[in-house]
Amino acid sequence: MTIGLGLPFSKRKLEKLLDLAHLSRAELSSQAGFGGLIGESAPMRRLCELIGRISQCTSPVLLIGETGTGKEVVARAIHSTGTRRGKTLVPIDCSALTTTLVESELFGHVQGAFTGADHSKLGLLQSANKGTIFLDEIGEFPLFLQPKLLRALQEKEIRPVGSTERIPIDGRVIAATNRDLEAGVRAGTFRQDLYFRLKVIQITLPALRQHKADIPLLVAHFLEKFSDPVQPVHVISDDALRRLMAYDWPGNVRELENTIECAVALSSDSVLTVDDLASVSYHASAPHPPDGNEIVPLQETERRAVLRAVRATKGDKVAAAHLLAIGKSTLYRKLKEYATGLKPMETWTQDRSIRHNGTEL
Ligand SMILES: Nc1ncnc2c1ncn2[C@@H]1O[C@H](COP(=O)(O)OP(=O)(O)OP(=O)(O)O)[C@@H](O)[C@H]1O
Ligand SMILES: [Mg+2]
Q1: For the domain that residue 263 is a member of, what is the CATH number?
Q2: Of 63, 79, 95, 226, which residue is the least packed, with the fewest Cβ within 10 Å?
Q3: How many domains are contained in the chain?
């Protein structure tokens, strides 16, 4: 038997899915709505309830959670369900701030503040304009600028580089990290006063292994998201779902999402099977989804290109090989490597070792 979501699906399949996710039909349709946050388990219900409450106030929020638990999704949900929806959300990746320009990036500068400052420039903290400032990876925020950030948050005003004037800021601050900030405070890399200022409201996101009941619903959502509308993979076999439920997901929802994306691209059928999941473990070691600036090993770049081509050509391997300017047999070999050269799911362990046919790879 298979379960799934989308069209076409049988009544029995849908009932089974709802049963696994402890959902009613009415609740299902409201699910994907809450800022894109999927989940009906007790921890996710508590989280949604909290988001609903804190989206109405303006206190700073600190989101803590392992990689891939959905901190950015939650930040966006707080923004989009609160009084600030419709205003700008300014995401600031603190791990990508370059030391030389960081101060002017965040606080802005006036004309002539330094060599090359031909025009005055608005700082990111100023540009939220009654919206939300999302300080992502706050654990990476440069130590030397932490006092200035603290002052900005406390006094709700900033002083652009080269200016003597103070400018009010009115963005609500949400910060996120997968680091242990208290350890940072102990190690002297994160200021305690800033930590206390940021965690006025602190939310710890549950790891996926703590709300496995949501896996069927998440799988259904990702099947919808990644399936080709012409040749949809709308269902997953019972065996395959059982495997997904048995795994501990150290990369959390992102790892599950990447897994389904990869399996859908490799699947040649409308049912996702255990065999389609064979290449899952590769994603577990990739903490971030691909973006334009990410530098990844060549082999991984190649794997992503191959999977994208297969998906873009709706599984037509000849057309995919043509797009990639490689021979059909090379493409088949690569797909086989991805599907068989990695750790089969039954041998997954949390120590991330990879075995194939009993041999450690
Ligand atoms: N509850 C959820 N419902 C739907 N999608 C989710 C959920 N949680 C996470 N995701 C998806 O998982 C991926 C990772 O989420 P996100 O980027 O918010 O994680 P994160 O906690 O910020 O991770 P990191 O610490 O690595 O930055 C995204 O594609 C996001 O859409
Ligand atoms: Mg993130």
Answers
A1: 1.10.8.60
A2: 95
A3: 2
